[in-house]
């Protein structure tokens, strides 16, 4: 039997990504890179009206294109069973709920023929008036049901009365535009029916969920559907649940009885795979002259589509952050004729903390109190909204450590105090938080007679290093070198597991891997030196995770973000000169991949602050930015030296690894830190993102 050693240094070491060589040599396969014999290609056709009904379809020119196999519309597409996601009910009826909604699919022998056929399709619509503009004061906005404790409205005490009578007030409204995830790999699927079985390669953050939804839509038992997501080129929430492409690919494969690949054109993504809803956020802070918060009121209005309610829960983090005896946090959603919004990295927290942490900076300026000191004075050991103690909360340590590393001491708080020629220099700080989520998962670990251990779990590696950290968890628990652990992930035929999302993947999958490894180690110990049976020994674990509502503790990660900016007074251009984050995230399991996660989040936060934003054209009724030339994701030249650090945190109330999620917190406070630095540099308080030169001048 394999030798079991007492200790291993696998967990906590900076192991390199297991799939790194495959990715850089081009051998890692993505969803569209599977080449089943005889595959066809599909090209989708988006609606060209913002609201209405499809009244006539003329496909004779399309069918005349050489190589076109078929044209699917609501008249001939397979009927789908009902699901609770209306965005997946594609080609089921003639309604057009928003511009860009898919109304047809052309399937052909080649990609070129499919595209040519799609362009030759003549569609006629009965157009209806549409409305896509979000107004914070719209009477049609409603307070959604608070199904999970993060949406709806929460009230403590008498916030309005206290606000009115408090000695110091801030009342400010912040605006964040629609934002798009734009992963490098667009949404793509290759689907095939094999003797009544549906086999799909999908670019997804969670193949178990895609399997379940496809089984539901196509009315199949779950064991007749296999979904793999072997490698995924980013998602950031846009691939968190199935999107229409995978349904269309499965439909086309069924109708043509051929394997079909569908890769969504980049220009279609803004309308069909979700976006961060724009928010209008009014923040009212009331404090005493020492900066002690008396009342916090955070009111958020976001939009949703006509077919699906999605709430950008921007006030949720305000329920976590600062002690205040009185508070009201309110979400309102306004249904419009817009594409359906969805998750984008730190949904809720990212725009919400931009508003709260900007308002805290405004309060610090109004009081003449250092912004770090103001946050320390309002720190709390219990979660304000639930009164539960935090399992660990080291926000103060993050702020202090960040201040030390950044060189905050001695900062002249006056705006416009530092210049370099025509450039104004400023520094800013903001806090960050993100919940430590854990979901149920299953995993198995097998010990073979040759000393190799195989972990099987339907985790997804969306570029984070999931394979690597799961191998470290197994090796550490088993007490074996990490090189002896094989990892099988990315297929729904593996033990069921939750998606890579909500910064919960490692905690959820890792808990099950830890549990299965623990059981396996115990069974191997029982062998007492006897050799393993030929088939090896396997242990399977189901872990529940811990739902937040069931916990005696409030479990959240915290962080502090620091930024230094230079603002060119001639051009209005803002350059971020330094970005530094310090995080309290439980135990860091792999410093190398963790650092990548943090600086990736901070980079996305820099984009949110300075360059990213989508525009809903009121007349056109859709997003104007359709490619990466118009939607400005930051490039290498935009990114300064970004530093990510963390403090040791020993929290026994999380999971067996003692870790909190790290995928999202990096974005959370970054935009506010940059905006606060811009105020420090210029004296101008800009409350609408992104901070482009036209707004600065
Ligand atoms: Mo993330 S927005 O939970 O994929």
UniProtKB/TrEMBL annotation:
Entries under Gene3D superfamilies matching the protein: Aldehyde oxidase/xanthine dehydrogenase, a/b hammerhead, Aldehyde oxidase/xanthine dehydrogenase, molybdopterin binding domain
Keywords (A to Z) from UniProt: Molybdenum, Oxidoreductase
Gene Ontology molecular function, alphabetical: iron ion binding; oxidoreductase activity
Keyword Oxidoreductase set for record: yes
Stretches the record annotates as Disordered: 1-29, 134-166
Compositional bias ranges of the Basic and acidic residues kind: 151-161
Domain Aldehyde oxidase/xanthine dehydrogenase a/b hammerhead: 25-129
InterPro entries named among the record's database cross-references: Ald_Oxase/Xan_DH_a/b, Ald_Oxase/Xan_DH_a/b_sf, Ald_Oxase/xanthine_DH-like, AldOxase/xan_DH_MoCoBD1, AldOxase/xan_DH_MoCoBD2, AldOxase/xan_DH_Mopterin-bd_sf
SMART domains, alphabetized: Ald_Xan_dh_C
Pfam families linked to this entry: Ald_Xan_dh_C, MoCoBD_1, MoCoBD_2
Polar residues: bias regions: 1-11
PANTHER family registered for this protein in UniProt: ALDEHYDE OXIDASE 1-RELATED (PTHR11908:SF132), XANTHINE DEHYDROGENASE (PTHR11908)
Name assigned to this protein: Xanthine dehydrogenase YagR molybdenum-binding subunit
Organism: Streptomyces indicus
